[in-house]
């Protein structure tokens, strides 16, 4: 059905000018619809170009990947959570979770035991990330998202051998 068929019958509605007016109104309506469709696509940070600077300001991120990492952060200290974020920066990233056994634990260790070694809180967890190159924005993001008892060690490029904690 054509909109011109819906025009009432009569002298006022006949002629070329009224039809030209309706066609012009239809064109502007289509233009507005297309703009709204484009804006709806632009609101998502993974596709936006217009609002990217706004997303960066809101999320305190320096890149699109940083924004996506923050928005994907649903929490926890699970390996998969941190690895999913790291893969947005380096798809080759690997993770090794370590729970070191400390030399001395207050309340458990006995008198005379060595206090030497690295002072590691008993319930600390270390995540060792193996990435291809230094990624300061990833490190900053992970530092912001991690629980207090989680620590990160980063290995870059040729350092990809296991670090003993």
Share of residues in helices: 25-40%
Q: Give Rg in angstroms.
A: 30 Å
Count, helices? 5
The averaged pLDDT comes out at 74
SSE topology sketch:
Layout: H1 16-42, H2 52-59, H3 64-72, H4 79-89, E1 94-98, E2 125-131, H5 136-145, E3 150-156
Helix pairs in contact: 2-3, 3-4
Describe it for me?
Helix 5 links the parallel strand 2 and strand 3 (150-156). This protein has helices at residues 16-42, 52-59, 64-72, 79-89, 136-145; strands spanning 94-98, 125-131, 150-156. It is rod-shaped. The chain starts with 15 loop residues before the first helix and ends in a 9-residue tail after the last strand. Strands 1-2-3 form a three-stranded mixed sheet, covered by helices on one side. With 165 residues, the protein is an alpha+beta fold. The chain has a domain at 75-159. The chain contains five helices and three strands. Mean pLDDT is 74; it is low at 160-165.
Tell me briefly what this model is.
Helices cover 39% and strands 12% of the residues.
